[in-house]
């Protein structure tokens, strides 16, 4: 879904495909996409044909080749409320759409050393965590001009590395040519000796930012304009709940889809709500959520009641909006189902703490392996599945703390999976009991990491 945007016609057709071929189940991903599972080989051509008629594609996702070849530009992430968010410097959707259209299906960009992930953000909350991407364009203002500064070389697979500033400025009309140039630099100069060392972040580590800048300038045939990126605020927050848009009288509403898991029926009913109140469109967020936009203020209560009938409640703690988990139950690398474990933990914490967490922002993320597809490496509380050898191997989780605008650190090793929710309860309880001492969970986590244990 380009920029996460889709029409209700597309959504209804996807729900039908899910019902017909995917056991009535679908998942929203962390890159504005939808995954259908349990697809039979013989059904794939018909599904592809139906998607093409909907102006949808399965391009820009997936790379099963065992060597450092056939990587592509992945779906570009952007703020899920671009164009309606108060305080945004620029609506990034037009640039995202132009860039995705350019790269989709172009053979000269389908043999990169590995996948290449891009983020383009104009959001004041820095909501899409651009620093975890290979390339990030972040909106900035110089005098009266608005454009982008650039970060490169991010990625949270092991070892997690946050992107580095290039200290340059790109005008909006130059964005596509710049992105094209850097992708070509990666294609032409990236390592192909080992798939494990072929991601762009390794190229940045080996060559350095300045050398890559020089290679880009050679592709563009001109020097890049300088910008001091020290002024950037790279803390991030997510959009949660219901918020006023910059358009008077209109609101957007983020639906708290648990870990992106949906039945085809619920997806269809959300599409019907978007038909009735949102002009026949809605959006998918990079947090595995759905965003309904352009809701008239006088219709908000009706929309919330319709969502409640489906099972989505807007008065829950922020955990519902910020928790994510990888689709490990469909991946051979994961040791168990992180989504179900995450849902179990979130529901347990809601029962135990009830309304006490409503105004507290704690982001809990689950991954089924070290690759951090569930973003555990940058979470307030991150959990990574491991195998606990105690007679028969049983699933367990390492618990990390203190992520956000930096990489999280290991706090507890190999907590048995069935004890995870209780250990999370202990951590949250300790935080709530010490709120007079700490301004945020992040400050509390830093203290906890220094102490090395719960008191």
Written overview of the protein:
- With 455 residues, the chain is α+β, with helices and mostly antiparallel strands.
- Among the domains are: 65-231, Sulfite Reductase Hemoprotein, domain 1; 321-451, Sulfite Reductase Hemoprotein, domain 1 (2-Layer Sandwich), CATH 3.30.413.10.
- It is built from 12 helices and 19 strands.
- Strand 17 and strand 18 form a beta hairpin.
Q: Briefly, what is this?
A:
With 455 residues, the protein is α+β, with helices and mostly antiparallel strands. The chain has helices at 8-21, 44-53, 93-103, 175-189, 200-207, 209-220, 264-277, 300-310, 319-322, 338-353, 420-432, 441-451; strands at residues 5-7, 25-28, 34-36, 77-78, 118-121, 135-142, 145-152, 164-170, 225-226, 242-244, 250-255, 261-263, 281-284, 290-296, 324-325, 364-367, 381-390, 392-401, 409-416. Among the domains are: 65-231, Sulfite Reductase Hemoprotein, domain 1 (2-Layer Sandwich), CATH 3.30.413.10; 321-451, Sulfite Reductase Hemoprotein, domain 1 (2-Layer Sandwich), CATH 3.30.413.10.
